[in-house]
Design a protein that fits this description.
Its main location: nucleus. Keywords: DNA-binding, Membrane, Nucleus, Repressor, Transcription, Transcription regulation, Transmembrane, Transmembrane helix. It holds the Pfam family S1FA. The structure is a single chain. The chain is mainly alpha-helical and 81 residues long. It has one domain. Helices cover 73% and strands 0% of the residues. It has three helices and no strands.
């Protein structure tokens, strides 16, 4: 009986050693997840920094044709007509 017990105890030790350590799939998932999270946080930080420091975009100049059209829609006659 003593021999059977010591044999099964040794098998349990071998199994425990094999299952210790982290699952490689979990490690890869955590690393990739961490990198994606870091990327998103970095992009957000850069976006906020750019919003504070960069000057606002200049609007495109409106063409004379469009100005004339808008004035006619509003009922104001264009100058020179």
């Amino acid at each position: 009986m003593g021999e059977q017990f010591s044999g099964s105890a040794q098998e349990n030790l071998v199994r425990e050693e094999a299952t210790k350590g982290l699952n490689p799939g979990l490690v890869v998932l955590l690393v990739i997840g961490g990198l994606v999270l870091l990327f998103l946080v970095g992009n957000y930080a850069l976006y906020m920094y750019a919003q504070k420091t960069l000057p606002p975009k200049k609007k495109k100049p409106v063409s004379k044709k469009k100005m004339k059209r808008e004035r006619l829609k509003q009922g104001v006659s264009a100058p020179g007509e």
